[in-house]
Design brief:
Order of helices and strands: HEHHEHEHEEHEEHEHHHEEHEEHH
CATH architecture of the largest domain: 3-Layer(aba) Sandwich
Strand order of the largest sheet: 2-8-7-6-5-3-4
Oligomer: single chain
CATH class of the largest domain: Alpha Beta
Number of domains: 2
Number of strands: 12
CATH topology of the largest domain: Aspartate Aminotransferase, domain 2
CATH superfamily of the largest domain: Type I PLP-dependent aspartate aminotransferase-like (Major domain)
Structural class: alpha/beta
Radius of gyration: 21 Å
Length: about 350
Amino acid sequence: MVEGEVWHGGDLATAKALFPEAPEPWIDLSTGINPIPYPVPALPLSLWQRLPGKAEEAALLEAARKAYRVAAGAGLVAAPGTQILIEALPRIAGEGPVAVLGPTYAEHALSWRKAGASVREIATPDDAGDAPVVVLVNPNNPDGRVIGREALASLARRLAERGGLLIIDEAFVDFTPRDSLIPELPPSTLVLRSFGKTYGLAGLRLGFAVAEPRLTDALRTALGPWSVAGPALHVGALALADRAWLDAAARARAADAIRLDTLLAPHGRIVGGTALYRLLATPDASALFAHLGRNGIYARRFQNDASWLRFGLPGDEPAWVRLGEALASFVPARHGAA
C-alpha cells in the first residue's frame, strides 16, 4: 500500500501479491457488496450506441423516488456512484469546518480535506459542537452502528438554525429501510444512497442524493450532462422497481449474516455490521488475515484498528465451505506455542 492511501475492499491484485501461492479461485470477502446480484436482463444494443436520454433518466428517478420513498418536494439526483457525490459535496456545501462521525468510510473526511476544509473526527453526534457541516454513515461502515431518526432530526434542526448541513450516507440501509431518514427528510439534510452494494452491481456505478432542490440542483450542475450511462439508467430503473427481489434478498442476506456470525464467533468478538458484512475484533487479526490469505480468502483489514477484520458474505455453498474449513484450521500463535 502507498503511504497515505486509503485502503478499500475488492483489491484482489494486492491479495494475490501478498499471497502468490494461494489457491484459486480467490474468495473475495473484503467488500460489503451483495454477492448474489440482481439478474440483469439482456440489454438493447441501442443503450451502448447513443447518449443517455432524458426519458430514461426520468424513469430511473421515478423508480428511485418510489423505492426510497422520497417526498414530493424533495430533490433527487442520480450520479455515477456515490463516491463522485462525496467528492462533489465540498464544492457545493461550503468550506467547513467539518465534523465526521467516526471511525467510518475514510473517503468522506478525505474529500473535505482535499478541498481544503478543516476536518475533525467525532465519537458521537453531540460532539459536533458548532461545526457547520456534520457527516455520518448510517448504518455505519464498518461497525453497523445506527443513529436513530429522532436523534438525527434533532441534529439537523440544530444545524439548520445556523445555516449548516447534515450529510448522511445511507449506503447500507436498503435492507433496513425503517432506519432511513429520507421519508421524513429534515431541512438542511442531504442523504446519499448507493445502488451497487445492495443489488450486487457495483461495476454499474450508480448512486443518488436526496436533499432540498437547491442542493440537488447544484450537484446536477457539478456532474454535468450525461453523467449516468444509459445501461445504468436502464438496469437501475428495472431493479429499483422490483420490490419482490429486494425483499427476498433482504431475508436471504440476513440469514447469511447470522451464518457468518456463527463461523466467526469462536475467533473473537463480533463488533457488529450489517446484512452485507460483519466486523470481527480479535488480537489475532493479523495472523488470521494471513492464514485466510494463504487459503485464497481475502478479508478486509483496517488502517485505524489492527484488531479489526471485516468479512463480506460468501456467494455460494463452495465458498461457505472453504471459509468454514479455513477458519476451523486456524491456530492462534499464542495457542500454537503452548
